[in-house]
Amino acid sequence: MKDYYRRIREVPILQVAEALGIAVRKDKKALCPFHGDKDPSLAFKGNRFHCFGCMEKGSPIDLVMKIKDLGLEEASEWIGSRFRIFPPDKGSPARSRSRKTPASPLPEKKIALPGAITAASPPGKEVLPAYFDVYEKTIALLPSSGAIAYLEGRGIPRDTAAGYMIRIVEDPGKVLAGLLERFSLELLLSSGVVRKKKDGSPTLQWGEGWIIFPFIGRDGLEAGQIVFLQGRNPLPDGIPKYMELAGGFPRPLYWTAKGMGAPEDGELYLCEGIIDALSAEEMGSPAVAVLGTSALSDTIIRTLLPYRLKILADKDPAGGKFAKEASGRIKEMGGWASVVHLPDGVKDGNEFLLQKIDRKGGRK
Fold first, then answer.
1. CATH architecture observed for domain 2-83
2. Where in this chain does the record put each Zinc finger CHC2-type domain (predicted)?
């Protein structure tokens, strides 16, 4: 863990400040967020900050701890999730050995792309910067242990689950109370984290046991911020299977670490869901998840056009429809795509990962 915290502290503090929304001038000074600053008195030097007004100072971790009101572990996780620095793997030795084996690429089959199929994305609410703190606090109030155990059962190792800040809802009432201590009910309702029950009383959007996946923004004001939350029902046949923010927000892309770092003109796996995207990443492939065909708006497709897309869909009628519609619309807009052909008996990308782990003896 010492090496993990060292790497966190070595993240350039100017990049951390930018992710926190601090506007730093060319002379490496900014208005201090810790007191009523009118003339920039916050200075950055030697990967540390120092305010000559209120005398606050420290490392990148200290800056996040003070601004976000987080502890050491939470602040380190906040930085790590945005700059892709994960804590050391605490999984079993067998799992660790299996992950050191270089992953072979997923099998693929190029197909002739069909004609254009249009499917307009439904209008949705705008995600406002004021919501970012709500989403971040929601994640901070949720424990990780149950989510990590769930994902390890799906072949996703502990360090990956921790690095992506994946959480579980254990006590919805306690989370709601914690949010109300910091935010107004009006803001919580408009952010989609809280909804009203039939009797008019507020409740957390997700119930006990739900696995929560935060989405990290990539560009502009959203860069490094939690911009969306999706919940997954932990019960195999639970209905609904997924539940997102209340209120009809547009569904963004879910980028994996390798996906964010993929070069333009490079390969990028376009997956039908988050677990499949994380599975592709565990097998060494950069990936991004789209939350259904309806989420493939023209804006999202334009974001994906620079890449050579490999569509990894479930091996069922719905997955076949997703692959066909996605490839058709990507072609219509001038992009390139091929469809991954999974082996017989494998229903999706996550099952393919689990079979690979079993063959390598990684599961005992």
1. Alpha-Beta Complex (3.90)
2. 28-80
